Amino acid sequence: MSSTTASTTGTTSTWDKVKHFLASNGALVGLVGLCILLFIATPVFLTGPNLLNVGIQAATVAIMAFGMTFVIVAAGIDLSVGSMAALAGMVSAYTFATSGWPGPIALIAGLLAGGLIGAVNGFANAYFRLPSFIATLAMLSIARGLTLVISQGLPLSTPESVNFLGSSLGPVPMPIVVMILAGAAAAFILRYTAIGRSMYAIGGNMEAARLAGIPVKKIQVTVFALSGLFSALAGMVLAGRLNTASPQAATGYELDAIAAVVIGGASLAGGVGKITGTVVGALLLAVIRNGLNILNVSSFWQQVVIGVVIAVAVGMDVMRRNEASH
Amino acid sequence: MTTVALENVSKSFGPVKVIEDVSFTVEPGTVHVLLGENGAGKSTLIKMIAGIHQPDTGRVLLNGEPVTLTDPRAAERHGIATIHQELNLVPSLSVAENVLLGRLPTKRGLIDSRAMRQQAQKALDRIGLKVRLDRRVGELGIAQQQLIEIAKALSIDASVLILDEPTAALSSTETDQLFEIMETLKERGVAMIFISHHLDELPRIGDNVSVLRDGKCVAVVPASTEEAELVRLMVGRSIEDQFPRRRGTLGETLLEVSDLNSAGTLSNISFSVRAGEVLGIAGLVGAGRSEVLRAIAGADSYDSGTVIVDGTKVPPGRIPRAIAAGLGLVPEDRKAQGLVLGATVAENIGLATLFRRARAGLADLRGQRESAQRISEQLRIQMHSVDQQVKNLSGGNQQKVVFGRWSLANSRVMLLDEPTRGVDVGAKVEIYQLINEVTENGGAVVMVSSELPEVLAMSDRIAVMSGGQITGELDASTATQDSVMTLAVKNVDDTSEETA
Q1: I want to staple B28 with a disulfide (CB 3.0 to 4.6 A). Which of A278, A282, B1, B153 is the partner?
Q2: Does B338 touch chain A (CB under 8 A)?
C-alpha cells in the first residue's frame, strides 16, 4: 500500500501524545523507572555524592559514544574508540614526560593524534572501500599496539592540563562538565551543520546522497575523524582522573559506547540517532552499574544484567518500529 | 484446473478501509486484470489471495470451496503462486538456488546439486530464459531478475498465478516474451491475475478487467475496452490527453555531449540538446541508455569525450561539478538511488542544495523548509506536511520530490531515467506537465524511457541506442514505433549475450 493514510488528524488527545512520547523514548522511561526503583531500594542512591559519581562514571563512555553516534548515524561502526582513547592519553603523557612539551601542547597533541587516527579509519573506509567494521577492527589492534610501543607497556603520568579534565572545579567534577560541553557540541554538529545533516542522508541512503552531490567520501573521513577526536577527549578525562595514562586504559569501552548509542535509539542500519538518546543510553548503563554496586550485586552478575538491558532496549525499539511501519 | 474467486471481501488497516466489498471470479485459462491508481487497493487484494493478508469479511473461494489462507505457504499448497512487485531474490545466491529457494532438493541432508540443476534448468526452459545456472543473481539486470522470479513462481506447478506489475521493469521485447509465456499458461488452464499500469498491454493479454477506485470495484469490463474509457473509470474523470506535450520555441544549446567512450558500455556517444527541447533516448534494456545519463551526470566515470553544460565543461565522475553546471539526474530506481526514504520531504528536496546554501558550515534549515514548502505547492506534491517522511508518499509524489530537488537547485538540464516507472496514470500526466514546465522555463530534458508511446509523444527528437552506441536519431513528429524498434535492434552482436 503506497498511500499510508496515517490518520494524524488534529484530534490527538493529550493522553495520545503522552503515550507517543513514552513509546518513542523507551530508554528514558527505563532510566527514570530504574532511578525510582533504586531510590526505593536504597536511600544512598539519591544522594548528591552518589549522583555525581554516576555522572563521572557515565562521562567517559558518553563522550566516546557522542563520536560513535556520528559514525552509526552515517551507517558505520567504530570499534577502535577504546584504543584511540588510550593512545591519545599516552601521546599526551609521552610528549609531556619524555619529550618535555608544555602540558597544554601535549594535551592538544593527544587530541590531534586521536583525530588523525580516526581520519585514517575514514580514509580506509571511504577510499579503500574497507568496511568500517574491518577497518576499525584493525585499528583497534594497531592503536592499542602503538600505545604499548610508546609506553613500553608501563603507565606514564599525565601533565596538569590533562589532570585538570579529571579533577573537580569546586563541587563540580570536570568529567561531567566536559561531557556536557562535548554533548552540546556533538548535538549542535548533528542538528545544525550541513555536515551533520548529510550524515543522516548518507546513513539513510548513501547512493541517493552521492547522486544528489553530497561529498560522501569527505564526510565519511570527517565522521571517523570526529569519532577519533571525541575518543581522544574521553581518553584525556579517563587519564586525568587517575593522573596517569595507562596502556590498558579503556579496553573494551567500544562495546559500552556502541551499547549507549543503540540503547539511545540509533539504528545500526544508519540514518537514525540523536545525541540526547546517546546521553540517556550512557546514563542508563552507568546507573545500572552503580545501582547494582550499591545493592552489592556481584560484578559477574552485572555483566549479565547489562546484556539483558541492551537486548530488551533494542528489541522494544525494533518492535515499535515494525508496528509503526505496518 | 482451478477457479479462484473473491466474494464480498473487505479489509481495513486500523481505521483505514482499504478494500470494500470486492468480488470477482477468474476462470481457468483466463487472465483477469486489476486496474487502478496507486493506493486503489490492488496490492492488498492480491495479498489476500496470496495468503499474506486475511480478509476482515468475505471469503476466498477455490473451485467454489471457501479456503482460509493463513500464510503464503498455505496459498502455495493450494497451487497459488505470486510474483510480487518487489523482487524476492537473494542477490548473493546463484540462479539455480534462487529458482528453488526453500525447496532445494536434498539427498541424505545434503543439497543434491545435480537434481537442483535439472529442476532449475527445467524451470528456466519453461519460460525460454537463457542464463547460466551458477551466475549470482545480483550480477544480472533487473529484467532478467524479473524473469527468474517468474521461473521461480512457475516451478511449483501453479494453477493460479498472480502477477503484480511484472512488466514495469521489462523492455518491450521482454514483455512480449512474458506474454508468450502467459499464452502457453492460458492453454494449460492456469488462472491468472495480472496488475499493470500499461493500458496498451491489457487487450493483448487480458480477458476481463476489474477497475478499482478507493478500495471499491467500480466496474468489470472486457479487456478490449478503449483506453480512454478505462482511464475514465480508473480516475473517475477523463484525462483528455495522456501525453500533454507542449512544444515551444527552442533556444541556445544547453547540453553538448561529444564522443563519449567508456570501455564495455559506451562508444562514440554524441548529441546535443537545446533549451526548450526534450530529447528522448529509446532502446532495449542493456543498450546503455542509463549509462549515458549516469556518465553525463558524473555518477560514473568515462574514458574519453566531453560534456559541456551551458558553456561549462564538466569533468568525468564529478557529481558536484555536474550539479553546479546545471545538471540534475532523476535516477532509474527512485527508492534505491533517488530518495532518502526515512528523511522528510524537506530534507530530500534540500539535499542537493544542503552545502551550497550553508553559511559558515551551518545548514539553512529554515530556508530549506520554506523552499520545500514553496516547491511542493508548485509541483502539487500531495502530503500532510514537508516534515513527513518520504517513504509514506505514493510513487508519483516521491518522483515529484526528486524533481523538486533539482528545481530548488535551479538545474537547467534534467536527465530523466524512466521518470514514470511504477507511477499511476494520473501521476504520469502530472510528471509530463513537469517536463513541459522545465522546457517552458528555458530548460532542456533528456529522457530515457522503455515506454515507446511515452518517448514518441513527449520527445522532440529521439536518439535510439543499441549495444552502447547511438544507432540513429529521429524526429519525434515523424518517428513510429517501428522506426524506433528497427534502430533499437540494430548492431546487437556485441550485446546479444545477456539481452536475450
Answers
A1: B1
A2: yes
